[in-house]
Design goal:
This protein is α/β, with parallel strands linked by helices. About 35% of the residues lie in helices and about 25% in strands. The two termini are about 30 Å apart.
Length: about 325
């Protein structure tokens, strides 16, 4: 799955699209405020927000209204919010994702959902929701940002013609134990999908981890994704790091790209040859890609994205099930 090309979200002769955000506040490391800002930059109006706590939702709506110089309406729940907008963003913790997806489906609107789309134990219900979005021709995207750095780092990458034998990734979540695996696994899976043309029935095998302790602050999860005529070895190295900037890198067949975060959250990567490559914020690119896909409304693209998400759900649940509790 290659990241979509991003285009301007609106033109002067049309009313801006309206988006609603479930979980627009910043509790712990939530991305709601950043998503809101990028949608506004893309020409899409943040029309309303909803959350679990009414008072906090009203405070977030007031803050965003001041930032964007237009009203942002607080809604009591995801259902009412989805019915009032052109697209729904589900940026709350994973426990609320199914409710957000159901709200978007009930309203018949496209959805951008935070990763993982659903918890591993909800994989069957998640796959059912993905199928409903696809059957209705509704765009569904998952907030997996890492593939969006590839066009600038590896502009010629095409999973149809390139097939690395090994992909590794280092991330620095704030959680410990199983929680840091659950929080990080979607990232490496989405990166592999962007680099390798995996068949829909691909599966994760030979899953092991270095430290299964509940309070582990370091862990390395290894597995192999097999399907079709080939396979790829995957490694996810994790080390808890509560403060920014959090170390991160990935390797493709041993060639390492290390992320650096500079002043003003400017992102760059140190390439294998030592060059420093500046990249556009991948979250911004993802938002612009969502808007471009939303406007284009190409059925083939909607189907391809849904198929990729469904495979990611199955791989995610398969790895975590193999790791056990």
């Amino acid at each position: 799955m290659n990241p979509p090309h991003e285009d301007s979200a609106s033109s002067a002769d049309r009313e801006p699209l309206r988006v609603g955000i479930v979980g627009a506040g910043r509790s712990r490391q939530g991305l709601g405020p950043y998503l809101a800002g990028f949608f506004e930059r893309a020409g899409v109006r943040v029309f309303g927000v909803s959350g679990r706590d009414r008072e906090r939702t009203e405070a977030v709506a007031g803050a965003l209204s001041g930032e964007f110089a237009h009203p942002v309406v607080p809604f009591a729940g995801a259902g009412a919010l989805a019915a009032a907008v052109d697209a729904l963003v589900v940026a709350c913790p994973v426990q609320g994702h199914l409710d957000g997806l159901d709200a978007a489906l009930a309203a018949g609107v496209p959805c951008l959902c935070e990763k993982p789309l659903v918890a591993a134990e909800d994989a069957a219900r998640g796959l059912e929701r993905v199928r409903h979005f696809r059957e209705r021709g509704l765009l569904l995207m998952e907030n997996c940002q890492w593939p969006f750095v590839l066009p600038e780092l590896l502009p010629a990458t095409d999973p149809a013609t390139t097939s690395p034998r090994a992909v590794a990734m280092r991330l620095s979540p704030i959680g410990v134990g199983r929680a840091m695996v659950e929080d990080s696994l979607s990232h490496v899976l989405s990166l592999v999908q962007a680099l390798v043309a995996l068949p829909p029935d691909a599966e994760a095998v030979d899953v092991v981890q270095s430290c299964p302790a509940r309070d582990a602050t370091e862990n390395s999860v290894r597995f192999r994704i097999v399907g079709g005529t080939g396979g790829v070895d995957v490694r996810l190295d994790l080390k808890t790091c509560p403060q920014q900037p959090r170390p991160a890198w990935f390797t493709i067949d041993g060639a390492r790209y290390e992320r650096r975060i500079g002043e003003g959250y400017r992102i760059s990567f140190v390439a294998p040859d030592g060059r420093t490559l500046n990249v556009r914020d991948p979250l911004e690119r993802l938002v612009y890609g969502f808007v471009a896909n939303l406007q284009a409304n190409h059925r083939e693209r909607i189907d391809a994205l849904a198929e990729a998400i469904a495979l990611r759900i199955r791989l995610y649940a398969g790895v975590l099930q193999a790791l056990g509790r």
